[in-house]
Amino acid sequence: MHIIELDKVWKVYKTGNYVVYALKDVSICVEESTFHCIVGPSGSGKSTLLYIIGGLERPSKGVVKVCGQVLNKLSEDELARFRNRNIGFVFQQFYLIPRMTVLENVELPLVLQGVPRNVRHRLAKEALKLVGLEGFENRRPSELSGGEQQRVAIARAIVHKPKIVLADEPTGNLDIDNARKIMDIFKTLNKELGITVVLVTHNIEILHYCDRITRLRSGEVIAEYSRDEISKLVEELLKSSEFHRPRTS
């Protein structure tokens, strides 16, 4: 079953006399409960595609269907409610609120949903346990390492039990060891909880976590790869300059 379907999607930005085609005639499908990666060099449209899937941006043309809902037809308020129910977002930057404790940061999506305080506390603690941060509830973001802050961000993304997690370069600010820990968490969320994960990356080290890969270049889908074809893709990328390896320290 397809949980995400994009049909002939375009995204065009116009600034004065300049026209930028961020996405060109993109059609992709993502199966429910799979781990799907979107790859490509900087400027290829990866993040734009992710934001359109998540309803943070609207396509200029084409149809976006997520969780059985055509997002093009929704108002801004309806889109916000749809995201709060169905989507969890993880970004390269952690976007934690410094003055809040770890627990309070994780609870934020539930506050927006009007969930009672005692239920928020319970769900936030469960989410923190899932990412290996049980006992960190009363710490502040400044007291955590980069890898720990990203785990808090993941807990915040899953606290409302979304159907889909969208991750935009979630290992981009991490060394290779922390990048692997973060990817192991995503894999656990996908395989054990059945959450569909769509992850944007240009780190070659983490491609083996994926079930399927969509490859973009200049806003267009140039190829798609199954799990059995990932080794072939890695070989192709090693010969190109599109990807990089994460920091070792």
Short description:
By secondary structure, this protein is α/β, with parallel strands linked by helices. It is 34% helix and 28% strand. Helix 3 (102-112) crosses helix 4, helix 4 packs across helix 5 and helix 5 runs parallel beside helix 6 (176-193).
Overall description:
This protein starts with a strand and ends in an 11-residue tail after the last helix. With 249 residues, it is an alpha/beta fold. It has helices at 46-53, 76-86, 102-112, 117-130, 146-158, 176-193, 230-238, and strands at residues 2-15, 18-31, 35-39, 61-66, 69-70, 87-91, 164-168, 196-201, 212-217, 220-226. Strand 9 and strand 10 form a beta hairpin. The protein contains seven helices and ten strands. The chain has a six-stranded mixed sheet, sandwiched between helices. Strands 2-1-4-5 form a four-stranded antiparallel sheet, covered by helices on one side. It has a single domain (2-238), classed as 3-Layer(aba) Sandwich (Rossmann fold).
